[in-house]
TrEMBL record:
Transmembrane segments: none annotated. It comes from the Bacteria. Keywords: DNA-binding, Transcription, Transcription regulation. Pfam families: HTH_18. This is AraC family transcriptional regulator. GO terms for molecular function: DNA-binding transcription factor activity; sequence-specific DNA binding. SUPFAM superfamilies: Homeodomain-like. SMART domains: HTH_ARAC. Residues 214-312 form the HTH araC/xylS-type domain.
Length: 322
């Protein structure tokens, strides 16, 4: 046992003593469906719980998360996917999201989501009381009564993504330090979420109206088979190319070019699954110059060729058929 009178070390030791009781085994709970363990959170006490969810399906899946009365849920996506999500009846995100995309659900919030691509996520369930206590430890004062973690709305955060990946890797550890390691990573995710909220409070940015993003995405969707340039979309939005690209990525987590490519590939997947059009015709219809270019991009993103994906989709449909 180390004894010290250094106030800095004493504060750090006190923080560690405070944080250590707020975790419990198992280190990582595997969820059978999206946020499936949320229903039992109110019975798990004043502790942080960590869960992992993975779904390889490429058909639309709709979910409604159980409402929490005492826990925040910090979700970090481990891969790019496509999501339609609403919170408390209002649209939160609709379209492709990137690796590290983060969403924070506060107690009493109602969240509904649908995924049309494979998805993988870490969920960190944090009691409201722990958030208040960590705020006190970090800031030296109690949080305001109306304090809430800020919801990024599935904005991409590469640091969050890396922390979540490291947290997933702790499942393979089999030594006395594994539990402490996962605890530290979960706490890092919580403090990152708190840090992001503080940055928004300190540096408020003028929010763009919802129609701005909806209008630009609708324009891109209506011209998937055409050549669409950054200048075209920026002119529609009434912004310079650089300003538009910056605002678009801040809101979606993806560059306009990447977002458009994902939309084209998602449309192509639907056409491939229907199995009515030749692959070359699909490639042209979604805006690629040739089947070869389409195949290269498709394989880079999905890990398989369009033909192989079509066969896989057909096999899945046969298995799911009644």
């Amino acid at each position: 046992m180390v004894t010290t009178t250094d106030p800095v070390l004493v504060d750090r030791a006190a923080a560690y003593d405070f944080l250590s009781p707020h975790f419990e085994l198992p280190v990582l709970i595997k969820e059978v469906s999206w946020r499936s363990i949320a229903a039992s959170m109110d019975n798990r006490g004043d502790r942080i719980n960590i869960a992992y969810w993975k779904d390889e399906a490429h058909v639309e899946r709709r979910y409604s998360a159980p409402t929490q009365s005492s826990h925040y849920i910090i979700e970090v996506l481990l891969r790019a996917t496509t999501i339609t999500c609403s919170k408390n009846g209002r649209n939160l995100r609709n379209g492709p999201v990137a690796f590290g995309a983060t969403q924070v659900t506060a107690p009493e919030d109602q969240l509904e989501a649908s995924f049309t691509r494979s998805a993988e996520a870490i969920h960190v369930f944090v009691p409201r009381s722990v958030v208040a206590s960590v705020h006190l430890q970090l800031h030296g004062k109690a949080a305001a009564p109306d304090y809430r973690l800020v919801d990024p709305g599935f904005a991409a955060d590469t640091m969050m993504g890396k922390l979540a990946c490291m947290l997933l890797e702790t499942e393979a550890l089999r030594n006395p330090y594994a539990h402490a390691f996962s605890n530290s990573l979960a706490m890092a995710i919580l403090t990152r979420a708190m840090e992001n909220g503080s940055q928004l409070d300190e540096k408020p940015r003028q929010a763009l109206p919802p129609w701005w993003l909806e209008r630009t995405i609708a324009y891109m969707e209506s011209r998937l088979g055409e050549r669409v340039t950054l200048s075209d979309i920026a002119d529609l939005a009434g912004l310079s190319r650089m300003h538009f690209a910056s605002q678009f990525k801040r809101l979606t987590g993806l560059s306009p070019h990447t977002y458009l490519t994902v939309m084209r590939l998602e449309t192509a997947k639907g056409l491939l699954a229907e199995n009515r059009m030749p692959i070359a015709q699909i490639a042209i219809s979604v805006g690629f110059n040739s089947q070869a270019h389409f195949t290269t991009v498709f394989r880079k993103v999905t890990g398989m060729t369009p033909q192989r994906w079509r066969l896989s989709a057909a096999s899945t449909a046969q298995v799911e058929a009644p």
